[in-house]
Design a protein that fits this description.
Oligomer: homodimer
CATH class of the largest domain in chain A: Mainly Alpha
Low-confidence stretches of chain A: 192-198
Structural class of chain A: mainly alpha
Largest sheet of chain A: none
Radius of gyration of chain A: 20 Å
Strand content of chain A: under 5%
CATH topology of the largest domain in chain A: Tetracycline Repressor, domain 2
Mean pLDDT of chain A: 90
Number of helices of chain A: 11
Number of domains of chain A: 2
DNA sequence: GTCTATATGGCGATAGAC
DNA sequence: GTCTATCGCCATATAGAC
C-alpha cells in the first residue's frame, strides 16, 4: 500500500480518538511503523497533515444517502430508511462520526463553513422537504435538527451509556436504536396517549 | 479570593476551550498569575486538578436539578421543567456545556467511569424514574438518552445550524427550543395523527 | 523514501529557600 | 503558600547518510 495513504488512514483513526493536541508525531510514526522523519517527507508539518486527512476522510459519504432520497417510497418510509441508514453509517464508521464531533467542538470558523455548506447542507435540505411532507405544522428546521440529534446522540453517548442504570447489551445494536428513535419521532413517548395538551 | 478556587475557575475555562491535552500547567499558571509550583501545592497532579475542577463545575448544577425532582408537581410537569431548566443551564453556561462535550469525546477510560457514575448517574436515575412514570411501555434507558440527546444536540449544533436552510433567529432562544423538544417528546412529529403503525 | 541522529524547546513534576 | 531553579522526558522539526 501507498505509504502516504497508510499515514492518512492511521492519522484519521488517531486524531478522531485523541484530538489534534492529543496525538504526537511519534504516536503516529509508531502506528504506521515508520520513523517520524519519514512522515515529514510526505507532509510539511503536523497541521498540513491534519487538514489533508480531513479532506481524505470526508470524500464520498453522501452517495448512499442521495440514492435514498430518489427512491419511490412514501415519505414515512423514506424517514424510516434515513434514520436506519444514518445510524448504520455512524456505527459502521465511528471514526468518521468522531471527526465531525471534533470539528464542531473545535469550531474553527473557516473549516466550519466548509463543513456546514459543502458537506451537510445538501442532505439537510432533502431532510427538510421530507419533514415538511410528513409534518407540515411543525417548524421543519427545528424538527430536522431534532431528527439528526436523536440519531447522533445515541452514537455520541456510547462511551458513557453502559455505566448508567437500565443499560442492556441490545442498546448497542443499530436496529434497536433505530426502532426506538423512529417510534419516538412518529409517536412521542406517550405511545398514542397524547390527549392532554394546551 | 481563595487561590485554589481561582485556579479551579480558570481551569474550567481553559479545559473547556482547549481540552485536557491542549492545556499545560504553564498555561494555567500564567492565566492565574502564579507559578506552576504554586498550583502543585494545591493539587497533587494535573489529572487530580482536572477531576476536582469537574466536580466543582457540576456541584451547583446538580443542586438546581435535585430541587426539581423533589417538587410536588406531576410527572409531565417535572419533565417540562427538566427540559426547560437543562436548556437554560446549557445556554447560560456555555463553558459548562463545552466541558461535557469535551469529556464525552475525550472518553479517557479512567476519568470516564468516575464522571459517569459519580456525577451523571444520580441525575440520570431521577430521569429514568420520571420516564417510567410517564411512559411505562417504552425502554426507559433509551428514552432517557433520547431526552438528553434532544436537549444537548440543539445546543451542540449552534455553530453550524445558522448555515442551514430554514434557520431563523428565534431558533437560538432557549424557550423556543424547549417548546419544540417538549412537543416532540410528548406527541411525536405527527401532531396527533399517529394512527397508522405496525 | 526511509533511516539515524540531533537541535531546540515545552512538558509534568519536584526540591528547597523564604 | 508561593517562589526560583531544575530534573528528566517528550514534543515538533531538521540534517544528512543510504
Amino acid at each position: 500500500m501507498d505509504s502516504k495513504e497508510k499515514i492518512l488512514i492511521e492519522a484519521k483513526l488517531l486524531f478522531a480518538q485523541k484530538g489534534f493536541a492529543g496525538v504526537s508525531m511519534r504516536n503516529l510514526a509508531a502506528a504506521v511503523d515508520m520513523s517520524v522523519a519519514a512522515i515529514y517527507h510526505h507532509f510539511p508539518d503536523k497541521n498540513s497533515l491534519y487538514l489533508e486527512m480531513m479532506r481524505y476522510a470526508f470524500t464520498d459519504k453522501s452517495q448512499q444517502l442521495t440514492r435514498l432520497w430518489y427512491s419511490g417510497e412514501s415519505a414515512e418510509d423514506k424517514l424510516r430508511n434515513f434514520v436506519k441508514l444514518m445510524i448504520e453509517m455512524l456505527e459502521q464508521d465511528p471514526v468518521f462520526d468522531r471527526l465531525i464531533q471534533r470539528e464542531i467542538i473545535e469550531a474553527d470558523p473557516k473549516r466550519m463553513q466548509i463543513l456546514a455548506t459543502d458537506i451537510f447542507n445538501n442532505q439537510f435540505c432533502y431532510l427538510l422537504e421530507l419533514i415538511a411532507e410528513i409534518s407540515p405544522k411543525t417548524d421543519t428546521h427545528l424538527t430536522a435538527v431534532s431528527v439528526l440529534g436523536l440519531i447522533k446522540y445515541h452514537q455520541e453517548i456510547k462511551p458513557l451509556r453502559h455505566f448508567w442504570q437500565g443499560w442492556k447489551p441490545e442498546h448497542e445494536h443499530a436496529d434497536v436504536i433505530a426502532d426506538h428513535v423512529l417510534n419516538l419521532l412518529l409517536n412521542g413517548i406517550q405511545n398514542g396517549n397524547n390527549s392532554e395538551k394546551k
